Amino acid sequence: MGMGHVILRVTIKLLFAPIVLFAFYVQFHGDYGPGGGFQAGVILAVAFVLYALGFGLEETKRAIPPRFLTFGMAFGVMIYVGTGFLTLFLGGNFLDYNVLDPDSHHNAGQHLGILMVEFGVGMAVASTMLQIFYLFAGREAEPSDDAW
Amino acid sequence: MALVDHLPVLPVVVPLISAPACVLLPKGRLPWLFATLVSWATFALAATLLGVVMQEGVITYYLGGWSAPLGIVYRIDLATAIVMALVSGMAAVVFPYARASVLKEVGRDQTPAFYGAFLICLTGLIGVVATGDAFNVFVFLEISSLSTYALVAMGARQDRRALTAAFTYLVLGTIGATFFVIGLGLLYQMTGTLNMLDLHAKLAGQDNKVVRAAFAFIVTGLGLKLAMFPLHRWLPNAYTYAPSAVTAFLASTATKVAVYAMLRFLFTIVGFSAPFTEVALGLFLVLGLAGMFVASLIAVFRDDVKQMLAFSSVAQIGYMLLGISFATEAGVAAALTHVVNHALMKASLFLAVGCVYYAIGSHRLSDYRGIGRTMPFTAACFIIGGLSLIGVPLTAGFVSKFVLIEAALGATLAVPSLLIVLLIVASSLLAVAYIGRVAYEMFLADPPAGAPAVQGRAVPLGMLIPMAVVTALNVYVGVDGEGLVALCTEAAQGLLALSFGGGAF
Fold first, then answer.
1. What is chain B's mean pLDDT, rounded?
2. B172-191 residues touching A, CB cutoff 8 A
3. Which residues of B touch A88 (CB under 8 A)?
4. Which residues of chain A does B110 touch, with a Cβ-Cβ cutoff of 8 Å?
5. How distant, in Å, are the alpha carbons of A125, B21, B103, B113, B400 from that of B107?
6. Residues B9, A94: C-beta atoms closer than 8 Å
7. Which CA distances in Å does B438 have to B300, B301, B304, B445?
8. DSSP label at B76?
9. Which chain B residue is nearest to residue A68, measuring alpha carbons?
10. What pLDDT is attached to residue B4?
């Protein structure tokens, strides 16, 4: 790695952590304020896309391998639907968050439920965005077999 | 948690949570096994739901415990339960079939993704049917469509044209979805609600430009999704180049679900009080008849069996639209009956085409020469499916045509009923022509002189049994169709009763 892009690279390194932090801020702000998993997921993925632009695709793939993203995509959805099933097993209707904390007077169950669901959404969206970037940036004619 | 209380939501969410799990499974046989078991479980749930609805009437389920019209409601009446059972039943037949077919056509490496997408598609289709919330219909329609685009594109390993077919489908499908959601947005602007029954109550008596535009947008959008002639451009190539199992599943479910959504929208949401419903019904009558003839005529001259059947699907949708356009109980019942029967006949035809493709690696008509001798069982299933498509007595198709003709005679229309009946019969003759061409090649045409009979790969039982089951169902409905027709008539009564108002959410 030469010194060619040193200003870009230093800037990216400086920005990386605040972007990720902002993503988590949006993520955990999603229960009652504007924000939530979708926006947070995109912002989180942007941090890694930026990293890939400055440091190269291979470097980024070493940090976050494509297999890991496939797992994130699938597991995020499972967290979402799993929350629904959890409320079923606790005796409520599908996605009835109140049963998560039935004794609360401050709708803590609703907070908790939406945070769980949004966490799944964030994970799925971030993984999907980065996976799409990998596939487009990789420019392979066919998706490689280990992408799945 | 009592299972029965949650029956309306389970057929939607069981495949939904299974799909990502399927993606994480190792390549090879396991994803298929898992997906097949899930499809059977889903069918069992949907069938139980149908039984419960038949006994107890409409079931309402409040998602998240939020009451209607604020929250999302799943409202299961008889029409819903029938289509739900149909979709999951077709999945339960096609998934076992898919194993060998997909291994050959898509390859071992993509099996987790393939079955994951297949399960997502199933989720979306069942969701469209289950929900009583207009916006939810859009969401599920897109869930099923997006996964369908991917599934169609997976045919690229056999024929690169699958990619352009999938892309065309993507563009047109997205236009359809956009139109649909624009229409919904306008309706929401006018009424402030998305619950179907609440929409109906608040739309009653409203007639202004916004509502008319909304109506036009939604009918056009859904028309694109259900391949209403002349909005069918995406369908033939998508069906032709998709993997065989995908074609069989889509041909028997996807457009049917869009027809169901159209029924819901026309009769549950808008109803007869709106003056513009008449316009749409008149349009359906003309376009349905035109589609029956033009698409059948195109099918006669196709040299690719899969494409021929795809055009025939467009024509068959014409029959359903025709039934809807009568706007009578018998007409809607005929449309619903044909939804079920057409699923059966197209499934058996496309499954047979898939078996032939597995054996000889082609679905060109010229390669079908002598199939009747080398693959007698598959050829027989194809012929029975074809007879059903034509509407020969003792097959499911006859029941459909009989009910439809009866409905046409009972309806008061701008066009003389007798003319419509004649047109229905005449268009069936076109089906005789194209099915006859395949039958001729399979049984009668001499194999090319000097060439040895092509002995293809033996088709595994896993593919033959599902094909036989669907074919047998065709015959069963043909012999004993009373129950189905009675059920569909009752469902049509339920649908039409809502269109005059009433119905509590």
1. 90
2. none
3. 1, 6
4. 148
5. 28, 20, 5, 11, 38
6. yes
7. 10, 11, 10, 10
8. E
9. B24
10. 78
**Cβ-based neighbours of B273, under 8 Å, separated by 6 or more:** B204, B205, B500, B501
Is B160 part of the contact surface with chain A (CB cutoff 8 Å)?
Answer: no
Distance CA B273, CA B281 (A): 13
Look up residue A101 and give its two tokens: 């904390």
Distance CA B9, CA B11 (A): 6
**Would an 8 Å CB–CB cutoff place B9 in contact with chain A?**
yes
> Which three-class secondary structure state does DSSP give residue B59?
strand
pLDDT digits (tens, 9 = 90+) for A110-142: 888 988 999 999 999 999 999 999 988 877 655
Domain boundaries, chain A: 6-147
Taking CB atoms and an 8 Å cutoff, what residues of chain A touch B1?
Answer: 88-89, 91
Torsion angle, alpha carbons of B75, B76, B77, B81, to 10: 150
In angstroms, the CA B93 to CA B142 distance is 24
Q: What is the DSSP letter of B452?
A: P
Contact B20 A71 (CB under 8 A): no
The packing angle between helices A108-138 and A6-28, to 10°, is 150
The 3-class secondary structure across B386-413, one letter per residue, is HHHHHCCCCCHHHHHHHHHHHHHHHCCC
Best of B23, B61, B115 to substitute, by most chain A Cβ atoms within 10 angstroms, is: B23
Domain boundaries, chain B: 3-498
pLDDT tens string B305-349: 999 999 999 999 999 999 999 888 899 999 999 999 999 999 999
CB B374 within 8 A of CB B304: no
Q: How far apart are the first and last CA of chain B?
A: 23
Report the length, in residues, of chain A: 148
Coil/strand/helix, residue B88: helix
How many other C-beta atoms lie within 10 A of the C-beta of residue B367? Answer: 18
Give me B35's structure tokens.
């997906």
